[in-house]
């Protein structure tokens, strides 16, 4: 590459972009720098600033004030702190390289003070149920919709960036190990796990849907646009946003939100499986007792359990749908057994029967121990209970319990 013989800003900027590419920076990174410096260059032209040696701290103070007052044309909102900091950093780094390459005698921006970028959380995180609603929308659009569903499933199953998804090749997916090779920023590669459901959608897409878009120029690209070529990153954002709106959510939606939701869901699952399971809510299931009815069959009935838990306390309420008895939990706890690593819910209860049968007691006590079992994304409570019901006559009962959250 030829070093510029002029100090004009944009000619030096083009040289700087070539340097960045030569150093191995990704095309997306250089594209971002180009957009940021173009914004600065157009602002400079309006002030008759055309040479790099005119860029000093006073000029940058004026540019920072401009960015602070700037409003985005689409929604009239100001730039966020991170955006303003990035735009100033683009110029600072550009001037630094011009000094390194001897195009400037001194680095006039060496002591520039950049604004804090702040710390923000995503504004539109979706619940798992909302994600499922979004994922249902592409099924309304035939073959293209099935391709888009596979794309969205991959986003949510892996949490990768849109720029990483468009670079995926067919042979990057290892179905046996459930791993995907990701070509990340700075030519770095990493292996990312993918869920069983994500693998199933990818297998379906590769076997049935991709051949409908592929042609000789498609190469090994995994996801193909309507023209049979690799997707452009911006088109993926348009696709993600469209299905969010079709799902009825009046919130911004783009590819990075799936990334945030993946991280949040993984954290929730990690806490559920390794710290303390979230058992809050209404649970419905069946109790099968060792007691036999008149037909000689083991007695069973439907029960409800309402669990309310927080860092302060843990409360369980039992309800028998046949209304024969009323049960009150007097003590309960969730604990993890170090011997097997499983979580268990145990509780003591007291039952009262207002109008007991002649062979029954009006009051008895019992206990239960339930295993907290994880079935994919659901939790099931399975275990046994026992009581001192009519124990004097050797008729005390025990049985099995299985509950699922509604």
From TrEMBL:
Coarse class of the protein's main subcellular location:
cytoplasm
GO cellular component terms listed in the entry, alphabetical order: cytoplasm
Task: Give the UniProt keywords, A-Z.
Answer: Cell cycle, Cell division, Chromosome partition, Cytoplasm, DNA integration, DNA recombination, DNA-binding
Output the superkingdom of the source species.
Bacteria
Q: Which Pfam families match?
A: Phage_integrase
Q: Name one GO biological process term.
A: DNA recombination
Protein location: Cytoplasm
The protein's GO terms of the molecular function aspect are: DNA binding
The Core-binding (CB) domain is annotated at 7-99
Q: Where is the Tyr recombinase domain?
A: 120-311
Protein name per UniProt:
Tyrosine-type recombinase/integrase
Query: Lineage from the top down?
Result: Bacteria, Pseudomonadati, Pseudomonadota, Gammaproteobacteria, Alteromonadales
């Amino acid at each position: 590459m030829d070093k510029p013989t002029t100090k004009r800003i944009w000619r030096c900027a083009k040289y700087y972009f070539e340097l960045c590419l030569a150093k191995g920076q990704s095309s997306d990174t250089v594209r971002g720098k180009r957009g940021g410096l173009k914004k600065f260059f157009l602002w400079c032209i309006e002030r008759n600033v055309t040479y790099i040696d005119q860029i000093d701290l006073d000029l940058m103070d004026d540019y920072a004030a401009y960015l602070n007052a700037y409003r985005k044309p689409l929604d009239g909102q100001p730039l966020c702190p991170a955006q303003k900091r990035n735009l100033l950093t683009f110029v600072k780094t550009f001037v630094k390289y011009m000094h390194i390459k001897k195009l400037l005698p001194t680095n006039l921006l060496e002591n520039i003070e950049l604004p804090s970028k702040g710390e923000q959380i995503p504004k539109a995180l979706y619940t798992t149920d909302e994600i499922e609603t979004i994922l249902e929308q592409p099924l309304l659009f035939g073959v293209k919709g099935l391709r888009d569903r596979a794309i969205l499933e991959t986003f949510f199953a892996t949490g990768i960036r849109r720029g990483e998804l468009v670079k995926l090749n067919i042979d990057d997916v290892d179905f046996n190990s459930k791993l995907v090779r990701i070509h990340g920023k700075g030519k770095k590669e990493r292996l990312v796990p993918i869920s069983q459901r994500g693998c199933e959608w990818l297998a379906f897409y590769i076997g049935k849907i991709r051949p409908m878009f592929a042609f000789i120029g498609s190469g090994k690209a995994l996801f193909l646009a309507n023209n049979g070529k690799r997707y452009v990153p911006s088109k993926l954002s348009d696709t993600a946003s469209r299905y969010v709106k079709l799902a009825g959510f009046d919130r911004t939606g783009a590819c990075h939100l799936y990334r945030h939701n993946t991280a949040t869901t993984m954290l929730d699952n990690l806490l559920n499986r390794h710290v303390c399971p979230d058992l809050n809510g209404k649970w419905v299931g069946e109790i099968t007792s060792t007691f036999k009815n008149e037909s000689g069959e083991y007695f069973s009935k439907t029960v409800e359990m309402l669990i309310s838990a927080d860092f302060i306390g843990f409360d369980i309420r039992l309800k028998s749908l046949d209304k024969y008895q009323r049960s009150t939990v007097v003590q309960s706890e969730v604990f993890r057994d170090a011997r097997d690593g499983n979580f268990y819910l145990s509780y003591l209860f007291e039952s009262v029967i207002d109008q007991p049968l002649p062979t029954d007691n009006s009051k008895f006590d019992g206990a239960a121990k339930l295993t907290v079992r994880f079935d994919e994304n659901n939790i099931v409570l399975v275990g046994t209970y026992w009581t001192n019901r009519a124990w004097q006559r050797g008729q005390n009962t025990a049985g099995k319990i299985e509950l699922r959250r509604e």
